[in-house]
Amino acid sequence: MKVSLKWLSDYVHVPAELKAEALAERLTLAGLEVEGLSHTGAGLEAVVVAQVVSVEKHPNAEKLSVVKVDCGEGGPLQIVCGARNFKSGDKVPLAKEGAKLPNGMHISRAVVRGVESFGMLCSAKELGLSEDAEGLLLLEEALKVGEPLAKALELDDVVLEVNITPDRPDALSHLGIARDISALLSLPLQLPEAPCATPPQASASHPSGFGIEIAAKERCLRYAACLVEGLTVAPSPQWMRRRLAACGIRAINNLVDVTNYVLLEYGQPLHAFDVDKLPAKRMVVRLAREGEVLTTLDEKARVLSAEDLLICDGERPLALAGVMGGKDSEVSAQTRKVLLECAVFSPVHTRKTAKRHGLQTESSHRFERGVDISQVHMALKRAAKLLAQLGGGEIAGDIFEVYPEEKPQRVLPWRASKFRQVVGHEVEEAEAARILSALGFQKQGEGAYEVPSSRSDILHEEDLIAEVARIMGYAHIPSLPPRMLRPAQLPEALFWERKIRQLLCGMGLSEVLNYSFAQPSHVALLGEKAPVILQNPMSEEMSVLRTSLFPGLLHNIGRAKRHQAESAALFEVGRSYFPRAHSGGSGAPPALERHEVAGALWGLRTGKRTWTAAEESYGFFDMKGMVESLLKALKVEGVRFEPLEEAAYHPRASASVWAGEERIGSLGEVHPRVAKHMDVPSNVFLFQLELEKLKLCASKQPRKCALSEHPSVLRDLAVVLPRACSHERVVELMYKTGAPLLEEVQLFDIYLGKPIAETHKSFAFALRYSDPNRTLADGEVNEVHERIVEEISTVLGGKRRI
Amino acid sequence: MQNHFQTLLEQAKEEIEAGDSPAQLEALRVKYLGKKGALSQGLSQMGKLPHEERKKIGAVANQVKAAVEALLERAMQRAEEAALKASLKGPKLDISLPGRLCRQGHRHPVSQTMDDIVDIFVGMGFEVADGPEVELGWYNFEALNFLENHPARDMQDSFYVSPEGFGENAPPMVLRTHTSPVQIRAMQASPPPLRAIMPGRVYRRDFDITHTPMFHQVEGLFVDTHVSMADLKGTLNAFVRAFFGESVKTRFRASYFPFTEPSAEVDIGCVICQGTGCRVCKMSGWLEILGAGMVHPNVFSASGYNPQEVTGFAFGMGIERTAMLRYGLGDLRALFENDVRFLAQF
User: Fold this and answer.
1) pLDDT tens across B261-284, in order?
2) Is B8 on the interface with A (CB under 8 A)?
3) Whether residue B117 sits in one domain with residue B156
4) Nearest beta carbon to residue B256 from set A167, A559, A587
5) In a domain, B224, yes or no
């Protein structure tokens, strides 16, 4: 909300030595955050009120005039001007030589098409006063020639842009903000005068025959009106136009401007109906009928629902209550008599209607948050009086109203001890009393305060405490050093997550964080289960939650390739999401959220081509090796791999990863179809591990084994085997046969080709034999070694290669 | 016989002194001292000699053997020294050639920042808690005192989750708009006193230069019988000093969140311009980094705590913004593009 300091000074007199910036800071610290501060007169220092002496056509330009103006000093000044909306005798703003206007324009003496010009006559837009660029800004007759424009127009103002939090509808008005300032600075608050006697109990009808009926009492909490007649519609006076402009509201005419003015003053929305357009003379507040149509002031025909509230003249709809008036009963230049409406509508329902129709107005904004029901008469009287004054009319009779149920004000306890407990600081009883009373709270005996009706947000004792604390200032609260309850440790899950991040970084993979959103076609492509669907996604590409980290990683690889990278090695730690049946009433997390780590390798193993290594790309065994190394570092026991067929992977080069009997993940080359669809190279390798399962099989304990003092015996063995025989089978057989002396087998070469038959392959192994308690003799090693060769031959059909 | 050994010594001396490579010397050692060497052969003939003679010659032979060994030892040292010297000369490596690099991964700046923030609070005794990202509406809103149809709900534009796949009893669900629902789950899970930090992903329906539809927050909560705003200030001041530096100032100002009362926004002195005013702090000299406050009594009631018995503070901060301030980053969206050139900077 925009707030004029000049306007505020009507209600609270801030001492001149407190600069606007300092005041803004005080407000900000007290919860009324000032997000912007502008000096409205800035840039108008060399702009004065001038009077047009003569207007002549420019000799060399069709669209220009040569104007002579009196600016109060020296002789008339000659100005070349393009506008045409003025005549001799008019008063207009003149930017003199040397002026620097708010829009950054420098004014200097110039020759325009052969005619000298000694300044510029300005439009409202050029002066930064409004968006109006049509012609010059015509000034009021009464202004003094030669006077600085800023002074003449009361422009020496400061406008604050205040961010009002949703709990403070009372601060959506100058009076509300003035009240906070008066509490902050201990200054008296001056309410605007609004004399107009009203009987304590207003009648529901007016002597002229007007009446009010509320058919939806839970929606319309109070409806008051008064009539003003004998009006002449005209522009509002400069001061009012300027104040409205400062707050960002365009002046229209005295009728409309008064309602807006009181809105900004009290925070009370008002509406003026042209009485001549109310033949039934019955202001009826009722729910709309499904499908009923009302054309609102913005000229849109709105189809209403049975949930919308209408103001009607008898049966005929006039306005969408609390949101916007109707086109039909709008005031016009011919309006002579108006009915001023001052009502309070239910916040929740106003919000629903405004949302349903996508209509956020100054009025709905305030009703949604809660308008002060106790100030209805004050605001209405104020508006009626201003209207009568500015329109040359008079108030006809008293306010008439329907106020179905006047609710008692809330009373809340106030305890200094509770304040101390919550805030951690003492407040003197007198100071607390001063603050609360300045904010409009009334003391109700010892330790209790009545909440003003403007503060619908104050519901608990803590809310009172917060009021005192914010006015006192949080800066007064001491800062206590952190207290220790007990030392904390990272939870297991986070410990392993971090360990994994660290290990993968060490293996050359960089961490990415991708959005949790996914594209339905990608989920289908990966053959995953049905995803979690969003009702209101940002876009189709982000319309479901991911069921795998792969699409994100592949997308990252695609991006790297497009930017000419030669390689990418990436991983992400995050969640996949799956819907699951919910048992009603349970607080259990609704979706299955699987914590995972996944990675992708593509391109040159070394990242870039180097002279130290052959130019080799990442392959399946790099991916497998990384997973093996990772699991080894996490001390996972019983790791094995099984062939796998899953939609994400190439069926010839993929594996599931197991720890004992638990499947903990998978790895492999990307399926060519997936690669094509996602526009990534086909030689991308992926892995995925489930963190929750990993957490259970990882260990922080060292893998203990006795360190033998006795030398081991090393033997190499090359065997020729049928191609289909897996490495795993050979090694398993070797360990089985070689136990207990065979300590370790390591494959160090694979050979295919001549002289070996095409149906066969050669594996070369390094075998290590040892016994922890003694040095082995050659003979016994030979015996075991030969037995292994025999077994390979009988069981696997292999033979030693010589 | 005696002469034979003496001659052998003379001969060995001559040859050893002439030998200048370790290999030559090794050959000489074999020639004279080996199993089939000259000395052994000489000794093998002693069996024919009478006992007295044998004793005498034996002593001579041993003297000669010791002398040859000593000669060889000295010569060997000399030769090795010379060989080492020779090997140290010769052409140098072009040490300007690039080294064989170990491929090194990089941590994502957001996850790195998150870890650092979590560690500071763990150091102050905060446990780490976790909760779901697909959250029941009740935890995300009602339990946190966000009333249905209250304008406060406009503060966070939510993603709503379709009931499809959640069975007949599917409850209203959202992607959590903040980490605050974890507060409720943490309080439901364990009685006071409770001190926890809750990092994680959150979602809001916003996408521009300063908003991404997903981002990260860290939530903090401390509940005990006597926790006050003074504790809140002290804890957050300690955090700011640890994370941003000892000299960074803080400012606590009143604000509004439905789930805390009183509520505060915490600003730090602008780390870019040191408070003199710049574009990042919008010329104010202050940067908003945290929302905080005293846990609202309605939140305690919703979580099963008795608001008459305990007080507590809660706070929350955005990780991306903190990371951007720390690393001087301009565009939030770059954090989720995962460009390898961007990642390699960290």
Assistant:
1) 999 999 999 888 888 888 888 888
2) no
3) yes
4) A167
5) yes
Backbone angles phi, psi at A458, to 5 degrees: -95, 105
Residue entry with tokens 């090794």: B26
Are residues B316 and B191 both part of a single domain? Answer: yes
pLDDT-derived band at A194 (thresholds 50, 70, 90) equals low
Neighboring chain B residues of A583 at a CB cutoff of 8 Å: 169
Q: Check if B301 contacts A (Cβ < 8 Å).
A: no
Over 80: is that where the pLDDT of A528 sits?
Answer: no
Q: What is the pLDDT of residue A197?
A: 52
**Whether residue B337 sits in one domain with residue B241:** yes
Same domain, B261 and B138: yes
* Domain of B239, in residue numbers: 109-343
Q: Decide if A507 and B340 are in contact by the 8 Å CB cutoff.
A: no
B95 in a domain, yes or no?
no
pLDDT digits (tens, 9 = 90+) for A786-796: 999 999 999 99
The residue with tokens 């629903």 is A352
Lowest mean pLDDT among A146-155, A728-737, A745-754, B121-130: A146-155
| Residues of chain B positioned with their CB less than 8 A from the CB of A166 | 150-152, 154-155, 256
- CB contacts < 8 A, A to B, total 299
B167 and B273 part of one domain: yes
In-domain check, residue B220: yes
Q: Which residues of A touch B139 (CB under 8 A)?
A: 587
Point out the residue among A491, A505, A545 whose CB comes nearest to the CB of B106.
A505
Is B128–A491 a contact, with Cβ atoms under 8 angstroms apart?
yes
Are residues B343 and A510, on separate chains, in Cβ contact within 8 Å? yes
Whether residue B96 is contained in a domain is answered as no
CB proximity list for B210: less than 8 A, separation 6 or greater: B332
Q: Cβ separation of A33 and B255 shorter than 8 Å?
A: yes
Total count of domains within chain B: 2
Tell me, yes or no, whether B81 and B123 share the same domain.
no
Same domain, B126 and B235: yes
pLDDT digits (tens, 9 = 90+) for A402-457: 998 888 999 999 999 999 999 999 999 999 999 999 999 999 988 999 999 999 99
pLDDT, tens digit (0-9, with 9 covering 90-100), for A79-129 = 999 888 988 899 999 999 888 888 888 998 989 888 999 999 999 888 887
pTM, to two decimals:
0.87
- The CA distance from B21 to B27, in Å, is 10
**Residue of B183, B176, B214 lying closest to B315 (CA atoms):** B183
CB contact under 8 A, B262 and A591: no
CA A691 – CA A636 distance, rounded (Å) = 12
Half-sphere exposure of B308 (CA within 13 A, CB side): 0
B234 with A482: Cβ contact below 8 A: yes
Over range A16-36, report the average pLDDT.
95
Q: Name the residue with tokens 């795993």.
A: A728
Contact B160 A534 (CB under 8 A): yes
Chain A partners within 8 Å of B294 (Cβ): 422, 462
Comparing C-alpha atoms, which of A120, A388, A339 is closest to residue A225?
Answer: A339
Of A620, A661, A618, the closest CA to residue A640 belongs to A661
Given an 8 Å threshold on Cβ–Cβ distance, is A517 in contact with B214? Answer: yes
pLDDT tens readout for residues A327-351 = 888 889 999 999 999 999 999 999 9
Which domains does chain A possess? 2-40+158-185 (3.30.56.10), 47-152 (2.40.50.140), 211-402 (3.50.40.10), 412-475 (3.30.56.10), 492-580+590-697 (3.30.930.10), 713-800 (3.30.70.380)
Give the domain CATH number at B299.
3.30.930.10
Closest chain A C-alpha to B54 CA, distance in angstroms: 42
B228 reaches A (C-beta below 8 A): yes
- What's the 3-state SS for A499-559? HHHHHHHHCCCEECCCCCEECHHHHHHCCCCCCCEECCCCCHHHCEECCCCHHHHHHHHHH
In this complex, do B125 and A351 lie within 8 Å of one another by their Cβ atoms?
no
Express each pLDDT in A130-144 by its tens digit.
777 888 988 888 888
| Beta-carbon separation of A484 and B233 below 8 A | no
d(CA B63, CA A231): 144
